[in-house]
Input
Amino acid sequence: MITKERKSQQIAELSEKFSKSKAVVLTEYKGLTVSEVAELRNVLKEAGAEYKVVKNTLSSIAAKGTPVEPAADLFIGPTGIAFGFEDAIAAAKKVLEYAAKNEKFKVKGGVIEGRLCSVADIKAMSKLPPKPVLLGMLAGAMQAPASKLAYALNATLTQFAYALEALKSKRANG
Output
């Protein structure tokens, strides 16, 4: 039996994790062995995420006032929670990859970057490239017009310099 003090401590810890997480993916782990859950935890740890199995009532209480509150309806049945602290998409990808390998493990939904997501939403987001790649693509897209402008201005200046040089040589010869 868990004491009231321990429950309060667990709720506070969960609430803090809900607030700090960039991704919270709710799963059904029914039928998984202890070694399979340990394997999942190791896979998620590599992505800067963690996996916890917590009572639904404690999770529902801890979700109040956090970005995970809209997902409170998903705290039904055996629920495991994957917390992604560093990269939201990486954590979601790892959970989906594990679900694809193990039919007993199912994704219920979750909250990514403060937005309630269905399983389909999570699958769509998991197909996105990692954040550094997206930022690089954005920087490249923003840099292209500037480099074209610089090239055009340089070409105009070069043509102007050639015209001045031609005018100077024409006056010198003529």
